[in-house]
């Protein structure tokens, strides 16, 4: 991690404080697969920002997910992907997504569709980006996740032209962006703790 990133890291508990002794397991998902993709740098920033003693972070990169061929895709669960166990272990997700043609990328949709129970009854915060914040990608994701019983947090972050904040040390946004992300993480931590307890004590039955 760069010194700059260390300097901008919050020194007080922010979004990730919660009332459980068990660390929260947060999966940060880099949602694009292009060779020169921005999502990896943004996801690395988000993962560093979210990681505290109370939060264990796993960065899952769509470009490295190694999903099976779509010919084998089935509704409600297919053969296990190489990242199924890591998604299953997560209590919460941060989805880092660009906007492609007013939606989110096909690679991210494949990651979503290749899993089912790994997503269910968990919360997600959307960190979108594009020319104007990638908000159409974020709103499309909300509808898709609703189908999977994923609660998307009210707060998210929409980054406008984040490539202009990409330097040798990675993605380096202004302090206000970090504060907005911390606020979203705070909400995400509440949902993560609440839904983890609910999944354990009151498993959903149709
Ligand atoms: C296929 C494609 C479609 C795009 N469509 C949009 C768009 O609809 N709105 C937008 O703001 N940016 C759009 N962009 C620009 C992306 O926001 C920008 O290239 C961004 O860096 C892509 O994320 P990535 O680098 O992680 O792949 C598009 C980029 C690509 C490659």
TrEMBL record:
Short name of one Pfam family: FMN_red
UniProtKB keywords: Oxidoreductase
Molecular functions per Gene Ontology: oxidoreductase activity
Protein name, per record: NAD(P)H-dependent oxidoreductase
Biased composition (Polar residues): 1-14
Top EC class, one word: oxidoreductase
EC number: 1.-.-.-
Highest taxon of source: Bacteria
Region entry Disordered, spans: 1-21
SUPFAM superfamilies: Flavoproteins
Residue ranges occupied by any NADPH-dependent FMN reductase-like domain in the UniProt entry: 26-157
Database matches in InterPro entries: Flavoprotein-like_sf, FMN_Rdtase-like_dom, NAD(P)H-dep_reductase
Organism: Actinoplanes oblitus
């Amino acid at each position: 991690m760069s010194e700059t990133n260390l300097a901008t890291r919050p020194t007080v508990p922010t979004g990730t404080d919660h009332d459980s002794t068990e660390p929260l397991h947060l999966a940060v998902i880099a949602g694009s697969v292009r060779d020169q993709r921005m999502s990896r740098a943004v996801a690395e920033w988000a993962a560093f920002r979210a990681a505290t003693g109370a939060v264990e972070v796993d960065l899952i990169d769509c470009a490295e997910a190694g999903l099976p061929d779509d010919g084998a895709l089935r509704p409600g669960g297919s053969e296990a992907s190489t990242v199924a166990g890591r998604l299953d272990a997560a209590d919460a997700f941060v989805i880092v997504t660009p906007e492609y043609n007013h939606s989110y990328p096909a690679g991210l949709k494949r990651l979503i569709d290749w899993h089912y129970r790994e997503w269910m009854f968990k919360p997600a915060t959307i960190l979108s980006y594009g020319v104007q914040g990638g908000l159409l990608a974020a709103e499309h994701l909300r509808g898709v996740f609703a189908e999977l019983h994923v609660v998307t947090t009210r707060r998210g972050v929409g980054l406008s032209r984040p490539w202009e904040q990409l330097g040798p040390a990675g993605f380096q946004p202004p302090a206000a962006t970090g504060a907005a992300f911390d606020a979203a993480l705070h909400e995400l931590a509440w949902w993560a703790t609440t839904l983890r307890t609910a999944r354990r004590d009151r498993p959903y039955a149709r």
